[in-house]
């Protein structure tokens, strides 16, 4: 089996029908993160903490609604440029970057992440895209 360094990064994206200020707030404020950070309706995010600055840390607990399983998703910010981009390193060493591009009342969000080697690439892409789609839905509805 190949190691993470040989797997190509995965990129997902969404266009959110909201201005950059609202998108940024929904992406970074814990009270919003707990509303969108899950891949399917049988999961939720009961806890989130976030310090969105270079060197800051974040942690979100993702849990099955039936209580059967949960895990913490976290890392340290390598670089945060307000209303522009975020780069972080997950606890397992994988890298993630998010670019926010404002266009009036729309904001394009492009997220690129290093895949892990335990699950198929398409499963990872689908899971991360589902979370991004939930983010879009939440941001457009608040």
Automatic annotation (TrEMBL):
Residue ranges constituting the Activator of Hsp90 ATPase homologue 1/2-like C-terminal domain according to the UniProt record: 17-138
CDD domains from the UniProt entry: SRPBCC_CalC_Aha1-like_4
Domain of life: Bacteria
Recorded coiled-coil stretches: none
Pfam families, per database record: AHSA1
InterPro entries: ASHA1/2-like_C, START-like_dom_sf
Family: Belongs to the AHA1 family.
Record-given protein name: SRPBCC family protein
Species whose genome carries this gene: Imperialibacter roseus
């Amino acid at each position: 089996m190949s190691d993470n360094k040989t797997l190509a990064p995965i990129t997902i994206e969404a266009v959110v029908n909201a201005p950059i200020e609202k998108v940024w707030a929904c992406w970074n404020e814990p009270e919003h993160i707990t509303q969108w950070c899950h891949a399917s309706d049988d999961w939720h995010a009961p806890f989130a903490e976030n310090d969105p600055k270079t060197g800051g840390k974040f942690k979100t607990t993702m849990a099955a609604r039936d209580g059967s399983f949960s895990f913490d998703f976290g890392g340290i910010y390598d670089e945060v440029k307000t209303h522009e981009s975020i780069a972080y390193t997950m606890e397992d060493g994988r890298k993630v970057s998010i670019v926010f591009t404002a266009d009036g009342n729309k904001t394009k969000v492009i997220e690129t992440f290093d895949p892990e080697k335990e699950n198929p690439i398409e499963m990872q892409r689908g899971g991360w895209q589902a979370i991004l789609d939930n983010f879009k839905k939440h941001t457009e509805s608040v």
